[in-house]
Specification:
heterotetramer; A: Rossmann fold; six-stranded mixed beta sheet; four-stranded antiparallel beta sheet; C: alpha+beta; 67% helix; elongated; binds adenosine-5'-triphosphate; binds magnesium ion
Amino acid sequence: MITISKLTYSFGRQLALKDVNFCMKQGEFVFLCGPSGAGKTTFMRILHGALPVQRGKVDVAGYDLNTLPEGRKHLLRRDVSVVFQDFKILTNQTVFANVALPLKVRGIARHIIEKRVRAVLRSLHLDQKALSLCEELSGGEQQRVAVARAVVVKPKLLLADEPTGNLDHELSMRMMDIFQQFHKFGTSIMIATHNREIMERMAGARVVTLHDGTMHEGCVEPGGDL
Amino acid sequence: MITISKLTYSFGRQLALKDVNFCMKQGEFVFLCGPSGAGKTTFMRILHGALPVQRGKVDVAGYDLNTLPEGRKHLLRRDVSVVFQDFKILTNQTVFANVALPLKVRGIARHIIEKRVRAVLRSLHLDQKALSLCEELSGGEQQRVAVARAVVVKPKLLLADEPTGNLDHELSMRMMDIFQQFHKFGTSIMIATHNREIMERMAGARVVTLHDGTMHEGCVEPGGDL
Amino acid sequence: MNVFFQLLGQGIRDLFRAPWSLCMTIAAITLVSFLGGAFLMLVHNLDLQIGARQGNVQFQVFWDAQVKPEEVRDVWAGLSAMEGVVNVRTFTPDQALGVLAESFQKSVDLEWMKGRSPLPPTALVECELPAEDGKKWAAAMVERLQSLPRVEKVTFNPLQVDLLTSWVGLTRMAFWPVTGFLLVVVALVVGNTIKLALLARREELEILRFVGASRAYIQFPLLVGGAFQGILGAGLALGLLKLLHNGIEEMFNVPPLWMNISFIPPMYSLAIVAILAAVGVLSSLVALRN
Amino acid sequence: MNVFFQLLGQGIRDLFRAPWSLCMTIAAITLVSFLGGAFLMLVHNLDLQIGARQGNVQFQVFWDAQVKPEEVRDVWAGLSAMEGVVNVRTFTPDQALGVLAESFQKSVDLEWMKGRSPLPPTALVECELPAEDGKKWAAAMVERLQSLPRVEKVTFNPLQVDLLTSWVGLTRMAFWPVTGFLLVVVALVVGNTIKLALLARREELEILRFVGASRAYIQFPLLVGGAFQGILGAGLALGLLKLLHNGIEEMFNVPPLWMNISFIPPMYSLAIVAILAAVGVLSSLVALRN
Ligand SMILES: Nc1ncnc2c1ncn2[C@@H]1O[C@H](COP(=O)(O)OP(=O)(O)OP(=O)(O)O)[C@@H](O)[C@H]1O
Ligand SMILES: Nc1ncnc2c1ncn2[C@@H]1O[C@H](COP(=O)(O)OP(=O)(O)OP(=O)(O)O)[C@@H](O)[C@H]1O
Ligand SMILES: [Mg+2]
Ligand SMILES: [Mg+2]
């Protein structure tokens, strides 16, 4: 699903990623950890083509990001869904419109959109809010809208950047359930998180840690520290 | 510091706060908990005058919010600092400019601003980023800017809405240290959070829980659940 | 196809999200294309005049100042029947005096001279010059007019045609620079609006890209918006131009011009709309590129 | 005081954050105030003309058509020395013919008549009417002119003054509606820019409020921005108006107008700048209120 070798990325003189080698098989479930400013978001932004590959080779979901032209990136993004750390939802539109958006741009028929969006909203306890404007939502509700929009298209690869930062324990667990469900049906999932509770829940899962731009492998030890 | 009786707030037909009675003495440290959508942010927005008092009586830092006119709200806000859940920083300006802003609007001399901002940024490990634009920061860095801006004015009351959602364990603890320092020097602090780790750290602290708009009292039990 | 119309509607709806900005733009485009259209109308009418007068020549016939009105009247009636004559205008002594008085703009009162005007009766005879042997024919015509009763003098003046032609040439020369300038202004204005709209929606467009929208899906509504502004502005400008035309249609239909102002032909109108739509689309494209 | 200048600078710097929008606005304000200024200049010049001609009257003197040029020339030289005479304009027969030819716009060639023009020599004598007994004085003046050698006829025409006066009255009547309309347009345009700027900075202003900025601290820069736009637009408009004035200053200094166009007085210029600044501030205030 993802094959990366010797990826290096810098913002001007600020080095964000340094010689990262990373491989992720189809159907894998990976946690991406690391302190604030370690480069997690930068890493994910490269994976879905929001930042260019400056140095190294990156291959995601069968697309070679070194050569993928701007005009074809939407094909990559139809296979790779992202939950952004800052949500990136349309605050002046309804919850329904936001979640329906990725289906709409794929030209999917209206009645199918309706059905799939309703189902996803229900599973995230957002069905009451379907017709609310997103700017009227609480922080946690907005975060769930971002997750709903990412999973509604049943992507091959899901990148979630800190998807539980504004959620209480119960909802965080609920969200992990949903991720696990998608995982069971074959979606590869990478979650960047600081939340130990949700990691502990997935004992044995693969964990990669970014630190000052370099990557280290590991796995969740049941009930313990990383 | 805060005296609230029978506060009720609704967005249209959506009831967000129901008959809330709450009292907070000067120098108290309070955690505000509750599931997503419980009304925590709404409660805090009323406390610094961003939302009007619809029903009930609210008195904050000596200002009667039922009668405080729009033209004098800035006086209230000079005593009450807020860390917003969505940061509300000026993304197109530097970290320094953002943190200096509340001092600048108070007409404080440039050299004093310089000194105080530098000190706060250092304590939050942001000194390297002082001259970066905020839109170039990672999620956790932005959150720390929001906190720095709130504490730099040494407020009488600090309202922090989910101030550690994007921070790793170490930084969260660091931030609690800072809050505790301010607390020692007399600042009253209210933190809305889902993060159990930071609550567990403050064993014995007062905890109020919002649930469906109603408020319940409690306190942090050492090492256990709420 | 469904998506096509959906995006079409989207492009227009998006414009109305900033109605103020839209109004200002439409107003600017309308003003500019109105100016352009008025200029085009001028050129068109000069062309028509040229076309009507091309190859024509005017003979001026002066009668003896002492001739009786009755005597010339019969001759005048016969003038237009002469071979090759296209148009005849005549001035009695009093009419000539009237033109004189008008030229003084009423600051000189010539009323008292009425009935004893010192000016001679005059006629302007416009003839179509035959394609060959024009000069010879004109000389013969002068002779024929000279031989009319009590005519004192005949002159003819092919110069007028040359003057008009050279003026039209000048206008033609100015045409492309002026049109180009106006189009650049329209492009700037439309581009500016689209750019502002893009700025306001930068985040929205980024989100669209991130959820997998193709480039066409994102850009098409913006191009539609540009075209719409161009077309609306051009339409309004044509409406205003028609109003102007109604106002001035008969204005120059007086001595010594006898010009009936024509509206620009439908093809030109269509061209204006098409060009402005194209400029709208192009400037949207440029705004998108940056 | 320090904060004052800081906020002043802020208000202007903020405008330049959206330079496109600013340019468009300034252009619009300039255009509108230019129109207003041109109108004011018209009114001002009519006023001047009225002032100069108020109570004046024109006598038209026609000599015998057969008189020799030498004979009238001496008389003409003496005309301006007569009591009460302000201005004298004279026409030899050939000059009168020239005006006639001009009125035919060259479609009638009158060159051949040169030297044997059938028109009489003419003079326009402008006199200041004494405040009292104007009619009697005028009658005496007619008599005096009539008694000049070989004068055939003298007429006088106080009507012209009335006409001019009534036209000025009309312009005056139009003045306030037109000015009001222009000011409303300026207010709309400035208000629109400020509103757009506010929209773009809504979040920023919200943040300013939340960190304890007083209302004055937030609003003052915006008002400064409004005033700045008004002043800049007015300044540019005055510059353009001066250019226009240079171009047309001498244009009407020809028969039969002999008008020297004056520029609007400094006080008016100042008033234009002040009014536009005020409108800018006011429309910013209104934009802030909503
Ligand atoms: N556009 C940018 N320009 C310059 N520097 C940037 C930019 N974006 C990110 N950075 C810097 O790159 C580093 C890595 O940022 P990144 O957002 O990837 O961190 P992160 O691991 O996601 O942190 P967090 O957990 O706080 O979200 C940070 O130091 C950040 O300041
Ligand atoms: N402007 C608004 N208009 C309508 N409803 C609103 C508005 N703001 C908030 N709400 C609703 O009020 C309820 C309380 O919102 P609030 O933001 O206070 O929750 P919260 O406790 O902060 O939740 P979270 O932990 O997710 O941030 C939510 O159901 C939310 O949808
Ligand atoms: Mg991040
Ligand atoms: Mg909240």
